[in-house]
Design goal:
It comes from Neptunomonas japonica JAMM 1380. The protein has 327 residues and is mainly alpha-helical. The protein has helices spanning 18-24, 31-36, 81-104, 113-122, 126-143, 147-174, 180-191, 193-206, 211-240, 247-274, 276-304, 307-323. It has a single domain (76-324), classed as Ribonucleotide Reductase, subunit A.
Length: 327
C-alpha cells in the first residue's frame, strides 16, 4: 500500500486589516503600517473637552500647520511600540555596560576636583532641560494629530525621561550616591546667572500651546544646540583636560541625537513641502526660537566654552535647516 501526501495552497480571504487595505491595497502590511496608520479615533465622541468646548478631543486645529494627510509624517526609523522597545533596549544595555565599567574601575577617582565641579555646574543641570523636553513631547503626543507623529512624540518623551535619569546618575557617581551633587546642580539651575536664560526658555516652552511650534522649539532648536555644545564641543574640551572617560557616560545621548534627528528632519521637511503657508510658519518659528535660544545659551556657552562655540553650533543648525528645505 502506498500513501500519497498532497499539499494544497489556501488563499487567505484578506491580507491585512480593512483600514490598512483602504490606504495601501489588499497586500501584506508591515508591522509599522498596521500599528500606525489610521489608528487614531476620529468619530463617535460623545463630549467635547470641557476646557476647550470649541474643539474636538482629537482635533487638527491645535496647530496652525495644515496637512491634507496627517499620516504623511512617516517615521524613517519606522518605530512602533515593539521596534522602539527593542532598539532602545540595545542602547540601554550598551549604556549600562559603560556605567558599570566606569564605576567598577572607579574612574571618577581620576577626575580632578576642578573637573568634578565643572561637571556639576555645566552638565548635571541639563537634567532639568531633559525633564522639560519630556513634558513638551508628551504634550505633543496628547494634543497632536495622527498616530504617525503622536506615537513618535511619545517615544521621544520617554527617551528624555531616561536621559534626565542618566544625568542624575552621573551626579550620584560624582558624589558617592550622597545626592549632594544633585542639590548643588539644582542650586545652579535656580540661581546661577549662566543658567537663567536656559531656565526661562524652558518655562516659555512649557506654556506654548501650538504643539508643532513646540516641536520646532524643543526637538529642533534646543536639541540641536545642546547636542553640539554639550555632547560634541564640551566633550572634546573635557577629553583635552583629563575627562575623556566621561564620554562613556554620555555616549547614549550622542547616539540618541543622531537617531532622533533623522525623524525630526523628516517631519519638518514633509510639513514644509505640503504648502507655502506651512513653510512660512516653520521658518518664522525657527527664526523666533533660534534667536531666543542663542540669547539664552550665550552666558552658559561663554563660560563653558567660548563665544565662538555658540556661533559654530548655530551654523550647524542652519546647515541642517537648509537640508530640510527651510529657507
Amino acid at each position: 500500500m502506498t500513501i500519497e501526501i498532497k499539499t494544497s495552497m489556501l488563499e487567505p480571504v484578506r491580507h491585512t486589516f480593512a483600514h490598512i487595505e483602504r490606504r495601501f491595497g489588499d497586500k501584506p502590511a508591515t508591522r509599522y503600517q498596521e500599528a500606525t496608520y489610521d489608528v487614531q479615533s476620529e468619530t463617535n465622541f460623545h463630549y467635547r473637552p470641557l476646557w476647550q468646548p470649541d474643539l474636538e478631543l482629537n482635533d487638527p486645529r491645535r496647530t496652525d500647520i495644515q496637512m491634507n494627510d496627517w499620516y504623511a509624517f512617516k517615521d524613517p526609523r519606522q518605530f512602533y511600540y515593539g521596534s522602539y522597545v527593542q532598539q532602545r533596549a540595545k542602547m540601554q544595555e550598551a549604556a549600562e555596560n559603560n556605567y558599570a565599567f566606569f564605576e567598577k574601575r572607579n574612574l571618577a577617582d581620576h577626575l580632578s576636583e576642578e573637573l568634578r565641579a565643572s561637571l556639576i555646574r555645566f552638565l548635571v543641570p541639563f537634567r532639568h532641560v531633559e525633564h522639560t523636553a519630556n513634558l513638551n513631547n508628551v504634550y505633543g503626543a496628547a494634543y497632536g494629530y495622527g498616530t504617525a507623529i503622536t506615537q513618535a512624540l511619545m517615544f521621544d518623551g520617554m527617551d528624555r525621561l531616561g536621559m534626565a535619569q542618566y544625568l542624575s546618575r552621573i551626579g550620584l557617581i560624582l558624589d558617592g550616591n550622597s545626592g549632594d551633587s544633585l542639590v548643588e546642580a539644582k542650586t545652579q539651575w535656580m540661581s546661577a546667572d549662566i543658567w537663567q536664560g536656559v531656565r526661562a526658555i524652558c518655562e516659555e516652552m512649557l506654556v506654548t500651546k501650538d504643539w508643532f511650534e513646540l516641536l520646532i522649539a524643543q526637538d529642533f532648536v534646543i536639541d540641536n544646540l545642546v547636542a553640539n555644545l554639550v555632547y560634541e564641543q564640551w566633550d572634546e574640551k573635557l577629553a583635552e583636560n583629563g575627562g575623556q572617560d566621561v564620554a562613556m557616560l554620555t555616549e547614549f545621548m550622542r547616539v540618541w541625537h543622531k537617531d532622533t534627528a533623522r525623524w525630526v528632519d523628516a517631519v519638518i521637511k514633509v510639513a514644509a513641502v505640503e504648502s507655502d503657508e506651512n513653510q512660512l510658519l516653520i521658518s518664522g518659528w525657527v527664526t523666533k526660537w533660534r534667536g531666543k535660544a542663542a540669547e539664552a545659551f550665550a552666558p552658559l556657552c561663554n563660560e563653558m566654552l567660548s563665544e565662538k562655540a555658540l556661533t559654530d553650533a548655530l551654523s550647524v543648525m542652519d546647515k541642517r535647516l537648509a537640508k530640510a528645505g527651510i529657507k
